[in-house]
Every structure is written in C-alpha cells, then in structure tokens.
Amino acid sequence: MLEWMSAVCMLVLVATFWPVLKRLLEACTSDTEQTNKPVQVQQEGPPPATPAAAAPKPPGPQGPGAAQAQAPQLAFICKPSALANYLLQHCKSFCRADSTAAPAWSWRSFPALQTLFGALWPHESTVHFVRDHLQLTDDGLVALDWAVGGGGASGGAHHIKRRRTSSNSTSPILLIIPNSFGKITRNVLKLCEAALSHGYLPVVFNRRSQNSTPLSTVKLQQFGDPADLREAVRYIRYRQPAGRLYAVSESTGSGLLLSYLGECGSSSYVTAAACLSPIFRCQSWFESGPSWPFNWALVLYQKICLSRYRTALSEVIHTDSLFSSSSLRSMEEVLFCQAGLKGVQVEGAWEAYWERNDPLRDVDEVAIPVLCVCSRDDPVRGESQATLPLELFESNPHFFLLLSAQGGHCGFSMSEEDPMLWSHQALLEFFRATTDFFAAEERSKLAARRRGLSGAGKSFRHRSVSTCKRQPVCSHNIHAIYNWQRSYTR
After folding, report:
1. Is the pLDDT of residue 112 over 90?
2. Is residue 103 a contact partner of residue 128, using CB atoms and an 8 Å limit?
3. CA gap 435, 453 in Å, rounded
C-alpha cells in the first residue's frame, strides 16, 4: 500500500514539474509589475443612480474582450445595480488586488501547486463534526456533518454530545457542499474554521455513499439532481428555524447548488450563496476532461470510493465497465446512462442526462444573490474565456463574478501570514454585505409604510400597528411539509 501511494505521489509531482519549471523561467525573465495592476470593476450597460466609488476604473474599454486583454489582477464582473455598488463599498476583498497576488518566486504563484495544496495537503484543525444521518423519502441516506470547535486534534468528535433535534438559536447557518466526488479538502476544513470564528453554524452536506455515508438503496445521486439536497435543506430549517441560511459550494459541487437554486427559485430558504471555482459548462467539461493528471486522479478516487459498494451496484450497473473506465465521462455514462447489466448504450442518453442535470438549465429562476469566485489560471476548469459564461454575469443581476489572476482551483492561498484564505474572506464579506443591504431596504420600506399610515388619520392608528408587525424569520410551516419522525441520527 505504501509503495502504491508513493507511485501516485511521484506521478503527480512529475505531472506538475514541467509547468512549475516553465513558470520559474518566466518569472526570472519578467518583472513583477502584474501584481500592481488595479482592480477592474466591469459593469455592463448604463451606470446606476448610486455611484460605485469603492474601486477605481482603469482607463480604456470595459467589455468582455477588454477584460481578457488587460488581464487585471482582480476583476468584479456584474450587471450594474444598487447591490453591486453596495458590495464594492463594503467588501474590502473585492477591491484589493494585492490580496490576490502571490510573489513570482513563491510556490503560490503556480496554479497546479495551489490546487494540490488546497485539496490534498493535511491540515491540523480543532474543528470536529457531529453527524446526522437523514433518511429520505425513498429510504436513502445522506449525512449532515455539523462543525463544532474546541477539543484536541483527534478523536474529539466522539466525545461531543449530540445536538438537539431543534434549536431556537439565531446564529446563521452555513451549508457547505463539497465537490461531487465527496472529498473533504483542506479548504473545506479552513472554511469551517473561518465560519465558526464569524459566528456561523457550518454544516457539510454529504451525498449518498460519500464520506462514509451508508448506501442504503442501490441508487446514487446524479450530478445536478437537487432532490436530496432539497430534503436536507428542509431538515436544516426544521432544526434551526430562527437562523438565516447561507450556502457555499466547492468545485463540481457548485453544479448541485446552482441546480437547487434554479429549481426552487424564491422558495430555496437560502439568503445568499457562493460558489468557489465552479464548473459551469459541465457537459463539455466531462467530455473533454481536465488535464490528464487531474483526470487520472479524479477517476482513481471515484473508483476507490465506489469499490466498497461493488457487489450492491452490480445489481443495476455493469461494474466491469465501471471499474475499467479511464475517463470521467465513461464513468458517468456507466452509472447513469446505460440500460441493463450488459452496459448497452441508449441513443441520446448522454444528451438527455445533461438536459436534466445541467446546472444552468434554470439559472433564470435563481432569486438570491450568488457570488462566484474564480481564477484565470484554474488548471481544472480550463481556459477562462471558453469556460466562464461572462454573459450570465453581465445580464443577470443576481450573479456576481470575482475573477482573480491567480489562485488555481479552489486554492486562493496568497499569503502565509493570513490564516484565512482570500476566497473565504470574500464570501463572508459578501454574505454580511448582502444581509445588511436587504435589511436596509426593508427598513426603508417599513419607514415609508409608516409615514403613509401615519398621515391617514386617527382611524388608521391601530391598523398601522398590526400592519407593521414583524414577520418571523421562517414563515413556512415545515411540520406540514415533511414528517421528520422518520429521520434518525447516529
């Protein structure tokens, strides 16, 4: 086993050696002037009434082509709106280009090393998890890991008392959706630490069979099927009805979050959401795949995770074809696009699968602010001009793109001195700013309503008191939506 792991590490190092050497040679012959470029604030269309004075605009054109030609260190791309201007004024990480720049001589300037460090490097954390197993309508199981702080470095989770089924806590909840392969990365752990330090209650959503979640039914979750996540969100709202709910996804897990937000629309229960290094054009990404070392590592990891259920899965799929697959597309086709145990390809099944699972299929129905944090040098997503739907951010007022020049895939580790990743700081500031913005909007509407009612005479005095009564945070009758007596924990 040790020899096998050594071989894997050697292959990964060999795969990353040439890009690192190339970047070192370029760094030796170039100046570090790229790190001093200003922030680009790109807002298409006519400017809104409220000026965006938090970040200066560089001279020159501001269209999508200019964004790629100038290649600023940090760009904020969105449709002009009052919320966008408010974010620029109150989110310092949106306007600090120096916070996203790593020195040319540092390993943090290499996207492959950034990606591997954030995904594979061990992290000594005091965060522990208390697990809830949630039984779904079809008797399947998903796991919710509630992050708690304190205790030793290992084994502390077994000594923490189980939380109550419901709580009157008003602390905000941060729902974290890891990548679609179920890997809990170093960056997810650091996000839990940052969320706890800012007063959030972090909870990690684990799909069926992932991260030691039992597979109670011979059914795996499709890439963009939000049915399981919808039930998990309702359960979270049942347990914490008084706290606001925010959602964060990482890498390919953003496909599930965007699918959920699009299908549920204004009934998503979520106040605001963020996607870290999302994969937008998922079908083409599965067809072309990432560069071969990352494709090989992801395929191998998925095979290892599914191997423990090989006997059970053999009842519905052709496991020999599954474990002999050499690409992400072939594995996805065997799992969800083949009929019978002989692995018969159904004509048009691949296209029909992505019609049901494309994360952007219902993107126009998203009704909450969504921040997407990406980097231009992402080695997993691919070239930014072909993989980022810039037209989405330029036309949809609910989507905001924070595009950095460096950071790799879910890396964004720019400094050894700062304990919090820049991407985590950006999304936490985004959540705070959007909450404050909507609270101010509600206060202004309430004040206008009170002014209107106060001028109507004494006959409406008592009616104004009842009309302006504060509504509860969660007005949905969750007890009528679902019978949670069937859920259990362990």
Report:
1. no
2. no
3. 27
At 78, the amino acid letter reads: C
Please count the other Cβ atoms lying within 10 Å of the Cβ belonging to residue 302.
21
Which pLDDT does position 433 carry in this prediction? 96
The full DSSP string for 390-424 is HHHHHH-TTEEEEEES--TTTT----SS-SS-HHH
For residues 342-366, average pLDDT: 88
* Helices assigned H by DSSP within 91-160: 111-120
Active site residue 398: no
Count Cβ neighbours within 10 Å for each residue of 21-57 and write b for 16 or more, e otherwise. eebeeebeeeeeeebebbbbbbbbeeeeeeebebbee
Q: How many residues does the chain have?
A: 490
Beta strands in 281-414 (DSSP E): 338-339, 344-345, 370-375, 399-404
Alpha helices in 159-281 (DSSP H): 186-197, 227-239, 254-264
Residue 378 annotated among the catalytic residues of the structure: yes
- Reduced to 3 states (helix: H, G, I; strand: E, B; else coil), residue 274 is strand
Helix then strand count (H, E) for the chain reads: 18, 12
From the candidates 378, 398, 436, 476, which is the catalytic residue? 378
Rounded-to-integer distance, Cα 202 and Cα 113, Å: 27
pLDDT, one tens digit per residue, over 141-178 is 999 999 998 654 433 333 344 444 446 778 999 999 99
What is the rounded distance in angstroms from the CA atom of residue 374 to the CA atom of residue 472? 36
Which of the following is catalytic: 128, 398, 409, 424? 409
Distance CA 261, CA 269 (A): 9
Query: Rounded CA gap, 200 and 13, in Å?
Result: 37
DSSP 340: T
Span 91-118, mean pLDDT?
77
Mean per-residue pLDDT, 64-88:
77
Give dist(CA 380, CA 111) in Å, integer. 10
Cα–Cα distance measured from residue 220 to residue 205, given in angstroms and rounded to the nearest whole number: 15
Q: Taking 90 as the threshold, does the pLDDT of residue 435 lie above it?
A: yes
Residue by residue, DSSP assigns 263-323 as: HHGGGS--SEEEEES---SHHHHHHH-S-HHHHHHHHHHHHHHHHTTHHHHTTTS-HHHHH
- The string of pLDDT tens digits covering residues 1-53 is 433 444 344 444 444 443 443 444 344 334 333 333 434 555 544 444 333 33
Q: Find the angle CA(100)-CA(399)-CA(67) to the nearest 5 degrees.
A: 50
State the average pLDDT over residues 199-212. 95
Euclidean distance between CA atoms 265 and 170, whole angstroms: 24
